[in-house]
Amino acid sequence: MSFVLRRPFAVSSNAFKQFSKPSSLIRSFHSNPKSSNSFFTPRTTTTTTSSAQSLLKSEALRNGFKRSYQTPSYQPASTTSSGNLTQRLLYGAALVGGTIFATNLIFNRETREDGGMPTYEREYLNQTFMHTGLGIGIIGLAARTLHTSGWSYRLMATNPWLVIGVGLAASFGTMYGTFYTHPDNYVQKYALWTAFNVTQAAILSPLMFMHPAILARAGLYTIGMMGSIAFVGATAKQEKYLYLGGPLLAGVAIVAISGFAPLVLPATAVRTLAWTENIWLYGGLAVFGGFTLYDVQKILHHARMSERGLVRKDVVNESVSLELDFLNIFIRMVQILSMQGSKRR
């Protein structure tokens, strides 16, 4: 029952405050005030005509015309911006590598005693990761499609309680339908699994309002965090972290309550809302990072049971848990990065 409360509904309103406003283009038209009656003025001398032509051909007038219609959005990227992009990529790679090293150093001191991962466990885990990546891809593609069709605007304009109620019903219905469908019933199994992913995309489509750079960095950090934790869970001692199921369930209940706090508490309770937001953000990162460690070891445990014929092999059900872990971590990464960007402005 640990998956019941792992739902990414409590997207804080801070995630959608930093929308960029379209830049206005000011076009100035320069005219000679004395030229209003020039139509009725006879051209008397050749000197006047030549002076007018020289004025029109002057460099100052042409430069002024160019400045009036020049749009800064079409200027090529400077070397400074490319340098900043390279620095950010290096910073992200160093952060991912440091996370992997630190996680293994702290949590992976006791490795497996069976001389490594057997073939059937490796295949089971690889197939689960493949379905997880495919599910995340379906969610991202469906969210982008729904956002471009205007679904995000309509969703944000709807009553939040209605969104939560319908979203919970659709998510739990498709999720439990996927869980309780027999693995041999491929058509119904994958149809419900696809419907579950589309449901997540419909709820999370407003995240597409965020800057693509923030979404890309959040995805990179989420992959690095989950990858390092999954590596620890796969190489650690068998069933070492399966005891975390109970404490993590209690932790996710606290995180879920803090996520619903902005819908219940008044806006005047600033300090309480700040505490609940920190619990939802950073406490949620810790809780769902622990769920990733727990789920990986649970998958390996199910692989051993499946090898003995005790349970049916079902990598689709296993991937749903990892998808929920990824989505919850990703949402919090997006909010943290957007808050950091707003503080720098």
UniProtKB/TrEMBL annotation:
- Principal subcellular localization: membrane
What the entry lists under InterPro entries is as follows:
Bax_inhibitor_1-related
User: Which Gene Ontology cellular component terms are annotated?
Assistant: mitochondrial inner membrane
Where are the stretches annotated Disordered? 33-53
One Pfam family assigned to this protein is: Bax1-I
Determine if Ribonucleoprotein is one of this entry's keywords. Answer: no
Bias (Low complexity): 35-53
Sorted UniProt keywords = Membrane, Transmembrane, Transmembrane helix
Which protein are we looking at? Bax Inhibitor family protein
